[in-house]
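Before a colleague's protein record goes any further, I have to sign it off. I want your independent view on whether this chain really folds as the tokens say. The record follows directly below this note.
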Amino acid sequence: MTTRAEFLGRIRAEMRKTGGLFPATIAERPAHPAVVAETVRRELAPRWPETLARFRGEFERVGGTFHRARSADEIPALVAGIARARDARRLIAWHPDAIGRDWGPALAAEGLEAHAMPPGPADSPAERLRLREVCAAADLGLTGVDLAVAETGTLVLRSGAGRPRSTSLLPPYHVAVFDRGALVDSLHQLGILLEAWHEGAPPAGDGAMISFITGPSRTADIELTLTRGVHGPREVHAVFVESEIRG
């Protein structure tokens, strides 16, 4: 039986493993976020290989699995390989308009039971429940990526029409596909792009959630015993496509 002193001593020992919080400063909101965001995009364009290398290093450090594909046509076989290695068959994906490609027929040809989300909101509570059950029963969730932050290895996904957050949260294996257009160097740049997204009236079909995914789901109890996959996927796979996904 663990004594109170042993219990508290273990917690103190675990807390000593971190160097503490990093110094933080408040960033000012740009007067014209969209203009600054465009400048950030131009500056990133010629050095995307360095940004990608940094993203991969940080993403793998937090427990993610990185893959690289030469073109979007390679995605179905790559996803099928991930599925077979885990004895998985059922897949739920963002709608083709949201992810950039319709991989449904090719995934089916690879032996997967592939379902795509509808392009807009469910028409009734019964349909919403049905879609949620489809996501909960799926082995893999296939999504796109809005931003990939190299500084922290974080994937940023906006919810909305054809891209509900349940696609990335409920299946035990999440596969996120992106190209160089999603890459940003830092959290500072991410903040600028978030401001640009929310400048003016929101576009039709935008959802209420933005998910920041930094590796697989992790949960720790009071004794800091770490468990994966309790409140989200136990594996997160990031697939970088060298050519543009939307073709």
